[in-house]
Amino acid sequence: MLIMNSIHWTYQSCNYVSYRMNRCVNMIARLFNAPLGDTETAMGVGTVGSSEAIMLAGLAFKRNWQNKRKAEGKTYDKPNIVTGANVQVCWEKFARYFEVELKEIKLSEGYYVMDPEKAVDMVDENTICVAAILGSTLTGEFEDVKRLNDLLVKKNDATGWNTPIHVDAASGGFIAPFIYPELEWDFRLPLVKSINVSGHKYGLVYAGIGWVVWRTQHDLPDELIFHINYLGADQPTFTLNFSKGSSQIIAQYYQLIRLGFEGYKNVMENCRENMLVLKEGIEKTERFNIVSKDVGVPLVAFSLKGQSFHSEFEISEMLRRFGWIVPAYTMPADAEHITVLRVVIREDFSRTLAERLVADSLKVLHELDTLPSKISRKMGAEDFGNVKGKKVKREKLMEVIVGWRKFVKDRKKMNGVC
Ligand SMILES: *Cc1c(COP(=O)(O)O)cnc(C)c1O
């Protein structure tokens, strides 16, 4: 009802909504331990999602870096940003749209997040920031932001570059503060200057809301803020889009106030428990390796054990018959030969559903065991049945993956990872 009542408003046209938005920014900044006095107002803004939030945070870093370089009389035309190869596509968009080189740390088999050592090694004088992810989209794993911070502090002391950190906490921002309060990943670390979080992921709001908050107002260059007064009062704005619906802001405000810290904590604990039930069920089938970690975003990412002559893509395809949409995807460089299935546990994913998913996966596995491999038939390749039990070379696996991608694409059915 709250959403319907506010559906016809943009958030700028109504002081009531701007006020609510600022309240949300303050609550979120405090949740992330921004160094604010009791009466101080936090710096941040509501966005369409984490993607817009990341564009804004990235722009602020780029501008700060340029200003610093100009003041030092140095060149400022080759900015770069350091991330893991596991970043969400919005970072690639930021890099391309705003002309910043993306320097990605490659992954390796068994290690699917950014390695802080390698990241700090890659930092140079043109690095506008290092972006760490709290909850990798692919496996839910939290990157070690504390270690990154400590290594970067040392490097900054030695070089004088002052390279800052942004934390992309799209999923983890509403998880870690509630169930891993000891984990230091946020503004408790001095180099973390901005953080984004999606309201429509674990913020428990419908699609269309994200947040970006800055450590202090000095971390957001003033020249990026526009002041408008034609709607009746001075309104500072820093967004890519001018108008934006107000209903999600109202909904976010409602959830924060209605659930409070304890409410969110209960929801997240529940998600975590259901994740563990699902994980144990999948482990019990003895057919899968679990790729996700127990500490992280509550999701289960898993891949087939050994060299099965069926693929994760086939399992994903067959689970659809039972009404499940479980995406299968390959890992980024240099772990492209690994394919995983991923189940994200949301608030409405109950224990009963977790048990049913395990039972349906078993049915799919039994059925697949009686079928010849679809890939070998589709690809017209040699008999993949021979491959079973043997150590398959990486090239062979890549062939299978490429074949499957083509097969899925030809049928105009692509699984997205979002
Ligand atoms: C989902 C996600 C994004 C993009 O967020 P949207 O709110 O969908 O725009 C960015 N980064 C990570 C790590 C994500 O998981």
From TrEMBL:
EC number(s) recorded for this UniProt protein: 4.1.1.15
UniProt keyword Thylakoid present: no
Keywords linked to the UniProt accession: Calmodulin-binding, Decarboxylase, Lyase, Pyridoxal phosphate
Broad class of enzyme this protein falls into: lyase
Enzymatic reactions: L-glutamate + H(+) = 4-aminobutanoate + CO2
Co-factor(s): pyridoxal 5'-phosphate
Annotated Pfam families: Pyridoxal_deC (PF00282)
InterPro entries membership: Glutamate_decarboxylase (IPR010107), PyrdxlP-dep_de-COase (IPR002129), PyrdxlP-dep_Trfase (IPR015424), PyrdxlP-dep_Trfase_major (IPR015421)
Family classification: Belongs to the group II decarboxylase family.
Protein name: Glutamate decarboxylase
Organism: Brassica rapa subsp. trilocularis
Name of the encoding gene: A06p027580.1_BraROA
